[in-house]
Structure formats: C-alpha cells, structure tokens
Amino acid sequence: MIAACPKCRTRYRVDAARLGAEGLRLRCTSCQTVFRARAPVRPAPGSEAPRPAPEQPAPRDRRRLVLVGDPDAAGAKATCELLEAAGLETVSAHDGVEALLTLQRTLPRAVVLDAGLPRMLGSEICELVKRNESLRSTWVVLVGANDPQPHRRPPGSPYGADAHVERPELPQALLPVLSGFGLPVQPPGPGTEPTLAAPPAEQPVTPAPQPAPRPEPPRQAAPASTPTAPVTSAGAPPVPSADEGEELDELRAKAERLARIIVSDIVLYNEQKFAAAVAGGDVLRSMAAELDEGRALLAGRIDEGVRGTRDFVADELLRVARSRGAS
Question: What is the DSSP string of 55-75?
Fold first, then answer.
C-alpha cells in the first residue's frame, strides 16, 4: 500500500502485512515528521449503500415544445405558464446566443423571439432558422414588430418570420397563432388568464318617438309610348354595388396589413439606415431600394386594381417615420 507524509506529502510504499491493528509508526526522510500509517478500512460486503442512478431528464415532446426567447425573465415566465396551461411544453432563454444554442439542442416546434434580444437579435435568429434544413418545420413568431395582428409570411418572402405579435398582446395572443400553426393547443383552465372587470350593465334605452311619415302624392303613370331609360352621365365610371364595395374594402385592408408586415421587416433589417433617413428627412429617397423590393413583394399578393389606388408601402413607411419623429 502507499502511505503519504501528512506534512510534505512524500509518498512511501509500505508492506500491508506489517500493519497491525494500531498501524505502523514511520518517520519521513524528507522532513523528519513522525506519522502512523494505518490500513484502509474497507466496508463489509453488502454494507455499502448503492449509489442512486443519475436522474435522467424527461424526454420532450417536440410536437408540443415551444422556445420562448425573452430578455425579461418575468415576462418569459408568464408566457411559459400560459402555454403550459394550454397543454404545451416550454423552454426559455433570455439572450440571443442562449436561445440559438437551446434551439439547436431541443429542435422545438415553434419559437417565440423578442426582436431585440441581447447578444443576438431575434430577427437574426429567425433568418438562421429559415436557412437551416433541420429546422425547416419550426415556426417563428417575432415579438416587437409594427403589425398589430399576427399573419403568416408570404410564400418565398425573404423576411423570415411566420407571424408578428406586439409585446402588449403577450402572452394571450400566442395561443391562436400557435394553434393556427398546428400545435395541439388546449383551452387554458380557469385562473390562467387575467381577470378583467365586468362591463357595466347596459341600461334599456327607450327609443324616441318618430314622426309619422307624410303621405306621398300619387304618381302619374308614364305614357306607354314613352319608355323610360336609365339616366347616365357620359363617360362616368360605373358605381360599384354594395357587395363590390365591401370586397374592395377587404382587399384594401389586406394590402394595408401586408404593407405593415413588409415595412416592419424593412425597419428591423435596416434599423441604422432608417434612423438616418428619419433624421435627414428624406425617408422615401434614402429607402428607395427597400421600397422597390417591398412593392414587388406586395405585387405578388395584391391585385393591381387595388395597388393602383395608392402606394401602400410608401404610406406605411412614412407613417412609421412620423411615429419616430420625422416631420
């Protein structure tokens, strides 16, 4: 056996047969320290308690797994709690690098990324996800865009995110978005949503008496020999019917929503250039290349008759610029 000096740690080989019950008294040749070497105590067979096996993490169900990337720990916790109450599994990260490593390790079904994650922006992670073949089936929700409602990204769009959600809408707005992506979202149980004050009871309103209609004078029948023809103005465009007007309003609203998505991504991917354009007061000229790209994307989704009414992308870009202090 090997015995070591307790002072200088010099090691000596000792015959175990020479060790009695009291051990063997030795003197270190290096430091002259006297010490006693004793035989090691071995437990009796069967007396040693078995070591517990290391606890293995429970396997995650990728079909239900959602990665929440949020720099605010309290906000991430609230989002995870609501998603778990809806039957999903969650994992969270608080900066971009951590989110990317967790994403590559767990391969979630969907990721919810704050656009302004520290160390690596959510929009940058989104672009990496869309370029990664192993993550092609992963849905990306970007938080912090200008679009007030979540929308699917257009096919072939270079901008990446599948949906956009505003931070004030978190976390409740995520449930319909994730459900639309095919995740098995269950209705949350009681107590998982914030309690809102009940609206005041509506008071019955007594309608004001309406005056009796005046009798119309009798109409004279037109002569049979003089047929009546519709009166039209020469060269005037036809007036659309009520149904056509509603359809046109819906198409315009769709164009406005798509323009918000396009401009939102233009600002995200060109933040410094856009800020300089706002400060210089020449947003349309400075962002001309991005505007042309956005208009081309809009042209693939919106009919020319609707696009011809106004420049939806330029109007939305100017609106965002005014909201950031442009004159």
Answer: PPPPPP-GGGEEEEE-S-HHH
Checking if the pLDDT of 194 tops 80, the result is no
Residue-wise pLDDT for 254-265, tens only, equals: 888 888 888 888
Closest CA to 127 of 157, 160, 162: 160
Helix (H/G/I), strand (E/B), else coil: 276: helix
Residue 106 CB-density burial (10 A; 0-12 exposed, 13-18 middle, 19+ buried) = middle
Alpha carbons within 13 angstroms on the beta-carbon side of residue 171 total 25
What is the model's pTM? 0.42
Contact (CB, 8 A) for 256 and 156: no
Amino acid in the structure at residue 161: A
- Both tokens assigned to 132: 């990664």
pLDDT 10s digits, 142-180: 898 544 433 344 444 544 788 888 888 888 889 889 988
